[in-house]
Amino acid sequence: MLDASHAVIGASLAKLVPNPVLGLPLALGLHFVGDLVPHWDLRTRHVKRSKLTTIALSLTDAGIGYALGWWLFNQTVPWPYLALMMFISQLPDWIEAPYHIFDWKFPPFSSIKHLQSRLHRKLDLPWGLIWQGLIVLLFIVISL
């Protein structure tokens, strides 16, 4: 799933679950559930491109998610909790990044990479993006 999608889901959860004791673990767990939904992503793991391009694409993807989450929920959720929920929603991807960028093929980076590889359900465009968009839209509608 795109990191933007994970961030917006995390922002939605921040609105729906204002208690961090419940919200933070839920945001982390829903990252993995979201990856089970057939989805399209930037294929940072399988496309041959420079590491610099991969970093730029990944940071742009994550940044778009933070911007959307902020835009949608900054008036109704305290900003520290909102930012933390969006970060925790993306956390497994942040932990996996050094595996790909720095070739750190040891735990926890390799462990999370192998777990996520087993959970991801990829689907090409346009359906992979459509399903992902519908899930994100559902979270937004429920939380607004």
Brief descriptors of the model:
mainly alpha; 144 residues; 6 helices
Count of domains:
1
Main beta-sheet strand count, sense and barrel state: none
Low-confidence stretches: none
| Oligomer category | single chain
Q: What is the straight-line distance between the termini?
A: 22 Å
State the total count of DSSP E strands. Answer: 0
Percentage of residues in strands = under 5%
Structural class: mainly alpha
Q: Helix coverage percent of residues?
A: over 70%
Mean pLDDT: 93
Total helical elements: 6
Gyration radius, to the nearest Å? 15 Å
Q: What pattern of helices and strands is seen along the backbone?
A: HHHHHH
User: What gross morphology would you assign?
Assistant: globular
What report would you give on this structure?
This protein is an all-alpha fold and 144 residues long. It has one domain. 73% of the residues lie in helices and 0% in strands. Helix 4 (79-101) crosses helix 5. The chain is globular, with a radius of gyration of 15 Å. The model has no long low-confidence stretch (mean pLDDT 93).
